[in-house]
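Hi, can you check this record?
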Amino acid sequence: MSGPPLENRVTSTSGNHADNNTATYSATDSAPPAADGSSGAASTGDLPAVELLLDGARAGYRTIEVLHGITMAIPSGAVTALLGANGAGKSTTLRVLAGLIPLRGGTLSWRGEQITKMTTTNRAKRGLMLVPDERAVFATLSVRDNLQVIAEASGHPDITPALEAFPRLQERLNQRAGSMSGGERRMLALARALLARPSVLMVDELSLGLSPKVAGELFAWLGTVADAGTTVILADQYTEEALALADMVYVLHRGEITFAGTPAELGASELLAAGAHS
């Protein structure tokens, strides 16, 4: 790992969505101390709060361990990029955060609250939303029905915000989702997540299989979501767009963190070691 063990701290950078002042504090704190010395979930001064904290996380599938005791602090209201080659553990990390895969060791805290054993459903109800890399939409339903299901479940049945964010979906409302292009299905998946009004939006392999133009549009949309205050966690193979969007970067290699820090601190050697690419 380059420099100090950055997985044990949160850094606010001047690059994108976090505060313009650089600040460092222990990731074992759920939030920086308040002016009166007490602790709280909200940021105080120029210090960003820790939204999610994975501490010594071990997880995997059946007899195979994929994550080998990683510690990761996700800053609130910022974009965190998880980078690395296929098989590095990016998707597994997101599934652990969403509750789809149980931890075999370690803990997970959300805004200082222990949620290691909280169900996937309860995490989603409280605003922790995952857009997976595949099967993110109901293929047999129309675009309209895909959106309506999520809108009604969230208690806000109006699907207009999704159509305003992705105007192309307006033209596809009566089309079966499974018959759309990969880029359009990805837009639909993100639109569904938008209607759920997440406080934490996790997106797995946003650019996978998409043209540079479509991928660029989706990265730009994620930027607007982050600017509005939503915490974004983006798992992707190395792309210029992901780094341009990110405030904090973790590089994973074979289930371990090989780099944690800001995009400006990320060097070519870390990317090469991770097997990531542009």
